[in-house]
Amino acid sequence: MKLVQRYFLRQALTPLLLSLGALSLLALLTQSLSTIDLIIENRQSALTFLYITVLALPQLFGIIMPLAVFMAMLYALNRLNVDSELVVTKASGFSPWQITSPALRIATYALIAHLVINLFIQPLTFREMRKALLEVRTDIASKLVRAGEFSEPTPGLTIYATEILPSGRMKGVMIYDERSADTPVTYFADQGNISTIDGKTTFTLLNGNLHFINENGAMDITDFESNTYDLTQLLAIDPVLRLKASDRYLHELFAPDPDEYAHPKWENEFKAEGHARLSSPLYNIALVLLALSFLARGDHQKMGYGRKIAIAAALGFTIRLSGFAIASAAEDDPALNIMQYLVPLSVSGICIWYLLNKRRAKNIFKIKWLRARLPALSRAEPT
Questions:
Q1: For strand 151-154 and strand 170-177, is the pairing parallel, antiparallel, or unpaired?
Q2: The model's pTM
Q3: Share of the chain above pLDDT 70, in %
Q4: In the predicted model, what is the mean pLDDT of residues 255-261?
Q5: Domain end call among 185, 200, 234
Q6: d(Cα 320, Cα 4) in Å, to the nearest integer?
Q7: How many domains does the chain have?
Q8: Phi and psi (nearest 5°) for 193?
Q9: Alpha-carbon distances of 226 from 53, 160, 180, 192, 208, rounded to whole Å
Q10: What is the pLDDT of residues 200-248, one digit of tens each?
Q11: Do 248 and 225 share a structural domain?
């Protein structure tokens, strides 16, 4: 790579990192809004919230990477044009390939990184995120007990704990149960712990006593070292980890277990997700070629390139959004999966043709040139 090409590469890398960081932060904030309600509702720590949010980053990178590369390329090419550096490079005898190769290198690197994220990193992190979310939803202690507060998970049942340790063990536990028609029962214990084994949720009380009114109207007190209180009937929680299409690896999307997902709707959704994973990296190449078509070719414009940038940006975002729309529609109509590849490949093909056939492409839109040719064609004698 020549010195000029390395300079062009550096001019594009800095805005790429900035745009990728800015778009990632925006997407991260949007993603966190859907998680923070669950975290607050289940009274989880800020560390849990941060962990779940970070696990969502790979998918966000995959979504925004083509747009970040596109925005960075528009900025870099505009700067090179405004400073007349592209004009000087063309005048020095650089071929179109030598001028565009730094941008295509970046697009290729982005494509490879995007593909690795889609095929390996995203399903790995999303599985961990799904497990973390399941742990949050099935955190029984946070749903039933608040330290220093009387909680009533169901009418007639009151639970209190003086302190809840980070391990989940509780100190100074009191349970008052008046759901029985015969007599209310009160449990006091020095310690308590909630656990789920084989789908059965129990509250284990240690070193306590049981208080109730006997048939004679007197208070009976029974001491115990360990007592188990069944909570299964109070909770309607599904502890099974269910993986969505975004959590699965490519081979699981194209060949799902028929015993687990037998419904045709699931099969169509998985195939659409699989094709989207493979086709979305192509937009890195397509959008970079689009930026090159608008700003890397053509004459120098003293009035600036604002109009070209606006048109290119609108067209680029429309192309990428159409990809999202097609991927969503393919979940209902599998025949649209081929369009997930045709859109970026068609854009790439048109842009390559334009970059390599500038004069011909430009003349197509010259109405004066067509008018000048029409009389000559009309006078031509048939052979």
A1: unpaired
A2: 0.75
A3: 82
A4: 74
A5: 234
A6: 31
A7: 2
A8: -150, 135
A9: 40, 18, 22, 9, 8
A10: 778 889 999 999 888 887 888 999 999 887 776 665 555 567 788 999 9
A11: no
